[in-house]
Amino acid sequence: MADLMFHFGCGIAAGTVAGLPAVLRHARPPARVSNIAAAWLLSAWALGLWAITPSLLRAIGLPSAISAAPCMNIFFFHPLLDRLENGGTLKGEMLTSGAFLLQYLTLVWLIALRNRAASGHQV
After folding, report:
1. What are the sequence ranges of the domains in the chain?
2. Sign of the CA dihedral 94, 95, 101, 105?
3. Most confident stretch, 5-9, 48-52, 99-103
4. How far apart are CA 16 and CA 105, in angstroms?
């Protein structure tokens, strides 16, 4: 059975990578990127929570037979990952840390780009 952190890491990493092209497409000043960046971050974190939903359902008392059923694959392949990966705490932490780092660096780059444009430098 895969670790909860591994499921969360897979979900948040997928959400981060999937939304990054939209953020980069809107990154040129004078465009306002705060709304798209906020939507990107919220959707990435929501996908991480979506990926751990079967584990949360199991924690509140849903039988394991239901939370391991093939229909639960809509939650980012949760039962499939459980069968393929045993443990995975370190992998999950690495995925989550990598996604957070990519999000942080992207936001810092967007702020620097915006400040540079506001100070009159050509971007």
Report:
1. 4-118
2. positive
3. 99-103
4. 12
